[in-house]
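REQUEST
  id: r-88c1
  op: predict_structure
  target: TMD11 protein
  payload:
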Amino acid sequence: FHIGEREEKCIIEDIPSDTLVVGNYKVQRWDIHIHDFLGSAPGLGMFVTVTSPTVHISKLQVLLSKLYGPQGTFSFTSYISGEHIICFQSNSTRFAVIAGSKLRMHLDIRVGEHFLDESAIQAKDKVDEVNVRLEHLIEQINHVTREQEYEREREEKFRKTSEETNSNILWWAIVQTIILISVGVWQIKSLRDFFIAKKLV
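RESPONSE
  id: r-88c1
  status: 200
  body:
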C-alpha cells in the first residue's frame, strides 16, 4: 500500500489470545527524478505501534511502540482476543509542505506461525531434529485450538446479539399491535359517540 511521508496508516487484525504475530515490512521512497520508487528508503525509519483492546472496550493497551529502519521485522504476543490495531508512521522531520514524497510499503503479517530454523536443525542429530519438529507441531496444534476457541467465543457473542435483536423485534411488533388495536377501538368509540350526538343512530 502507499502512505504519505508524514501520514500514519493503521490496519486492524482480529487475533485470538496468546498468539504470536510476526510482521515483516519494507519501505520504498518515491523518486521525483526517475518517477519511480527507489529500492529502499535510506535514512528513513518507521514507528510501529500496536494496541490491543482491554476489558474496557473504550480503552486500548499499547503492546509495541518502537522505531525501526526502512525495513525490518517486528513481533508481539496478544494477551486477549479481539481487534488489534497496527499503525505505521515514518520518522520524517520535514515540514508537511515539503514532505510530499509518497512511500510504498510492503507488509507481510503472519499470525500464530512459528518458523523452524533449518540451519539449527541440521546442526543437531536426528533425535534433536525430531524433538524440535514435534515441539513445532505441538505449537501449531495449540494455535489451532486457540483459533477454534476464539471462533466459538465470537459465534456465541453473535448468537446472543441475534437473540436479543429478535426479542426486541418481537416486543416492538407486540407494542405496535397493541397501539393499532387501541387506536381502532378509540376511533370506533369516537364515531359511535359522534353518531349518537348527531342522533344518526
